[in-house]
Amino acid sequence: MALEKMFAEHADKMAFIAENGTLVKVGKDIVFESGLSKKQYLEVIDTLLESPYMLGYDFLLSGESGAYLHPKASDDYLNFISNYYENVQRVADLAQVEDNILKVTANFSEDTVRQGEAWFNERISYAQAVTTGFKSVDIVIRDVNKRTGLEALCQTFNMDKSEIVAFGDNLNDFEMLDFAGNAVATENARQEIKDISNEIIGHCDEESVMAYMEGLVE
């Protein structure tokens, strides 16, 4: 998991909500997990490839052990996505992947990402596409999101949601912020996120989240 590598020195003492809420780890222990079956993720792929909003073959299967690309995925997408995922590899036949696939992420154009999200959600009932960036969506099992991941973490540590501070800027943060006792949006957040937040801080590129957290422990 890329997050564990990023915080390698302290990962065994940390808790992670990853893959848009489909994987929750406390130290080395998995406390919550929800993935797509092979039949489901293959149907998701077929549906994406039918979409008029899809950018070629630029989508990725994100699993516990690695991340898997269509053989025709562009080099630009491979280089871009490798910044965020570990063990990214092109696979000749995605049906042969032997991994627990937690989510599918796909690229649309910046102008059509919301239409692409809506188009997909009209076609598959068991999965939910949600915008995660200016031109990308994550597709996970419906009703699994960062909120369910945060709920699992609260249960593990016997915490109440009133004790939780959560930060977000995009639509895949919506349920999590709605759950948290204190919801904090960054200046660059989508308006829907700002509307449900208790506070709005600076732009995410200005280390505003780090500054806020440092203020909590001073």
TrEMBL record:
Transmembrane segments: none annotated. GO terms for cellular component: cytosol. This is Haloacid dehalogenase-like hydrolase. The keyword Hydrolase applies. Keywords: Hydrolase. One of its GO terms (molecular function) is phosphatase activity. InterPro entries: HAD-like_sf (IPR036412), HAD_sf (IPR023214).
